[in-house]
Amino acid sequence: MKRQVHSKEVRTAVFEKLNQRGVKIEDIAFIVYEMQSAYHEDLHIDDCIESVEAVLEKREVQHAVLVGIEMDVLCEKGMLSEPLQSLIETDEGLFGCDETLAIGSVYAYGSIALTTFGHLDKNKIGIIKKLDTKRNNGIHTFLDDLVASIAASASSRLAHRYRDEEEQQSES
Hints:
Layout: H1 7-20, H2 25-36, H3 45-55, H4 59-76, H5 84-89, H6 97-106, H7 110-123, H8 127-132, H9 143-171
Helix pairs in contact: 1-4, 2-3, 2-9, 3-9, 4-6, 6-9, 7-9
């Protein structure tokens, strides 16, 4: 009989793996704050943390994070066959599987998330830059893009939430 993995186990694993790789929820929330504070003067970092945590509750995001981190870890251990080992190890510019995995989880949050992901992938803000340039301290080929994906999704989520709140206030 095949083992069915409970969602609580998956959620716990995601938070543990992110922590083990040096990524805190607050790190991602900081990026969300950077992306949204210009549009919402009353935005608080706690709102951003809540949005990041909500994004990390989605199974598709959780699965992408687990797969991506596992690929990075296997590569660090030299456990991938060539040429995949070298492609991931060097974060080859034309290797797009890391972005493809990250983009897959962004789609649930619409075009704002997709364009924000592109911006973050290009400009490498906060922890994303740290992960992207950490060449002698771990491989983060997948993780930097996944963090960008989570931040982009959380940013989009907040943007939509603020619009909903504005509309509710105007109806009152």
